């Protein structure tokens, strides 16, 4: 009994270390920061609407929030409003969840907060998404014909394959581009970075404004500290 309890204690003690070691096998590429680049976020919105919104919804996001990244109502109507009638509507998708589950084996998740959800699992949702969208490869054993180095046996096909091309898995478990796509590798990476930036923006549209407001608050507190310290010295100078 003592040996059993001792073994159990040791297992519990080293479980976090084992989990950390297993998680270290997943290498994530650093996603470029697009948070302050409105042109990049606009391009990311275009890619999202054209390639992702066919299956994935963003039901907690409304089209009119795209005005925050520099788009006008008319630009949204002319270029991005494909799944709704009014700019104030949510970014929903017409495909039913039961049909999606039948086709893909699992219903495609809502992507409004996908960057934040992956951040809670992997530390950086942007890095995970950036690596994931660049890690698809051909796999004839999968129903869709695609697999992913980051998300093994994923049910999602590679919807961007015409842009990236076709990658294959080598014997060293590294991916190589066997068939080039419409975009050069660097151009494809830049486009994915824009898309990931937009996915991050959807998760917290007010993040940029909140950060700028935070710096203003810090500056105000700094000025207030200096004035308070000067007032304190003036008040106590005759006492000391």
Please characterize this protein's 3D structure.
The chain has nine helices and six strands. Helix content is 51%, strand content 10%. Strand 5 (165-169) and strand 6 (175-180) form a beta hairpin. The protein has a single domain (30-232), classed as Cytochrome c-like domain (Cytochrome Bc1 Complex, Chain D, domain 2), CATH 1.10.760. It has a two-stranded antiparallel ribbon with strand order 1-2. The chain is mainly α. Residues 39-199 form the Cytochrome c domain. Pfam families: Cytochrom_C1. Its cofactor is heme c. Heme c binds at residues 52, 55-56.
Descriptors:
disordered N terminus; mainly alpha; two-stranded antiparallel sheet; 240 residues; single chain; membrane; globular; Cytochrome Bc1 Complex, Chain D, domain 2
Task: Describe the protein's topology.
Blueprint: H1 2-23, H2 38-52, E1 58-62, H3 73-79, E2 90-91, H4 97-104, H5 114-122, H6 125-132, E3 136-138, E4 146-148, H7 161-164, E5 165-169, E6 175-180, H8 185-203, H9 207-236
Antiparallel strand pairs: 1-2, 3-4, 5-6
Helix pairs in contact: 2-8, 5-6, 6-8
Subcellular location: Membrane
Signal peptide: 1-21
Transmembrane segments: 213-231
